[in-house]
Structures are given as structure tokens and as C-alpha cells.
Amino acid sequence: MSNPDQMYDEAIALKDKGNLPAAVEKLHEIEALAPTHTLTQSALAIMLQKLGRFDEAIAHAKKVVELNPNDPFSVSQLSVIYQRCGRIPEAEDALAKSRVMNSGGGGCGSGGCGHH
Predict the structure, then answer these.
(1) What is the C-alpha separation between 20 and 86, in angstroms, rounded?
(2) Which residue range is the domain that position 92 belongs to?
């Protein structure tokens, strides 16, 4: 059996050949085996958005943020996915959150964000 990284490379090769539906199918196979494989979740967000499957794309972009809650890039990607899916208010909210994170104003110290 292939590992998630090898399967991901296969999915990207399918995308590069212009076969987004097959790439998405391969990514869903990875997701079933390794639901926390961040690259898979991110790629699904992008490819599903390109296929016009907006609700699914947003769900995967949100999953990336769940997996990497302190990563401003993940929040920025969520903003872009929202924007490309026509969800402008949500895009603006995510962009604002990303900017706060990038400026260091997120209130999280070196230990990350915890519950108080």
C-alpha cells in the first residue's frame, strides 16, 4: 500500500495532467486513510473550489485551519477559498484574523493558544 505522501504525489500528477476529478478522487482516498494529512486537506480545498464544489472546498479549508490553528497561512488560504467561492464577508473575517496573527497580536505566546 502506498503511503499518504506517495499518494499525494500521484494526485498532484493527475492534477498536472488536467484531470482534476481523478486528482480529487485520489485525495479522498488519502483522506480516508489519513484524515489529518494537511497537504491533502489543502489540495482538496483548492481543487474542489476549481470544480465549483464550494461547500466542500470551504469545509476542507476549515479543516486545514483546525489542523494548524496557529498558522496564518492556513487562515489566509481559508480567506482565499471563501473569496473565490463568493463568500466575501467570511473571506474578510478570515483575512482580518490572518493579519492579526501575522502581526503577532493574536494573544498567543510561544506555548500556543490554550483555554483559560
Answers:
(1) 21
(2) 4-102
The tens digit of pLDDT for each residue in 67-111 reads 999 999 999 999 999 999 999 999 999 999 989 988 875 444 434
Cα–Cα distance list, 7 to 26, 35, 43, 46, 76 (Å): 7, 13, 12, 17, 26
Q: What are the start-end ranges of the H helices in the chain?
A: 4-16, 20-33, 38-50, 54-67, 72-84, 88-102
Does residue 111 belong to any structural domain of this protein? no
Query: How high is the pLDDT of residue 105?
Result: 56
Give the pTM: 0.83
Q: Is residue 28 part of a domain?
A: yes
Residue 39 belongs to a domain with what CATH number? Answer: 1.25.40.10
Cα 36 to Cα 27, 93, 104: the distances in Å are 12, 25, 26
Sequence-distant (6+) residues with CB within 8 A of 38 are: 64, 67, 68
Domain assignment present for 116? no
Number of compact structural domains in the chain:
1
Q: Is residue 8 part of a domain?
A: yes
